[in-house]
């Protein structure tokens, strides 16, 4: 299945079902998507090979692993040069406290999503790691008070 081919409704059903439960058996997936087990297995294989399915993972409860505080931070760099961008991006990739890091257009350069034990842990990360990255001029931190919606499922 090439990346430029359109997904049909059966492919979309498979993707929706796998997003909801990545551990579903092939037999159950085939039944839910109205396919034979062999056709189901072949379609999933093609979706993986075509890059539509990029992997499988377990979702861990952040509270149970002492990462219950969700933080977003805007980062403004002092210069917008390729070297500064790459230095910052490399540092973000190395940091286990950074769950997501996105270069954005607008009033700041990067948006970071982080989960930490508490605000003291965030302050330590901010002081010891984030503001010490060469090129970081300013940060604005937003602690999340309530997660209204959080999902990993894309509408397909």
From TrEMBL:
SMART domains: HTH_ASNC. Residues 7-70 form the HTH asnC-type domain. The keyword DNA-binding applies. InterPro entries: ArsR-like_HTH, AsnC-type_HTH_dom, Dimeric_a/b-barrel, Tscrpt_reg_AsnC-like, Tscrpt_reg_AsnC/Lrp_C, WH-like_DNA-bd_sf, WH_DNA-bd_sf. GO terms for cellular component: cytosol. Transmembrane segments: none annotated. GO terms for biological process: regulation of DNA-templated transcription; response to amino acid. SUPFAM superfamilies: Dimeric alpha+beta barrel, Winged helix' DNA-binding domain. GO terms for molecular function: sequence-specific DNA binding. Keywords: Activator, DNA-binding, Transcription, Transcription regulation. PANTHER family: LEUCINE-RESPONSIVE REGULATORY PROTEIN. This is Leucine-responsive transcriptional regulatory protein.
């Amino acid at each position: 299945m090439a990346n430029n081919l359109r997904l049909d409704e059966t492919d979309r059903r498979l993707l929706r079902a796998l997003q909801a439960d990545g551990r579903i058996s092939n037999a159950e997936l085939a039944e839910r998507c109205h396919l034979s087990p062999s056709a189901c297995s072949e379609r999933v294989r093609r979706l993986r090979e075509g890059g539509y399915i990029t992997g499988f993972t377990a979702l861990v409860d952040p509270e149970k692993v002492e990462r219950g505080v969700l933080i977003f931070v805007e980062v403004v760099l002092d210069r917008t040069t390729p070297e500064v961008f790459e230095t910052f991006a490399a540092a973000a990739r190395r940091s286990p406290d950074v769950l997501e890091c996105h270069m954005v257009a607008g009033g700041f350069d990067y948006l970071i999503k982080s989960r930490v034990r508490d605000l003291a842990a965030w302050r330590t990360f901010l002081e010891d790691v984030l503001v010490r990255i060469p090129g970081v001029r300013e940060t604005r931190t937003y602690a999340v008070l309530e997660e209204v919606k959080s999902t990993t499922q894309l509408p397909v």
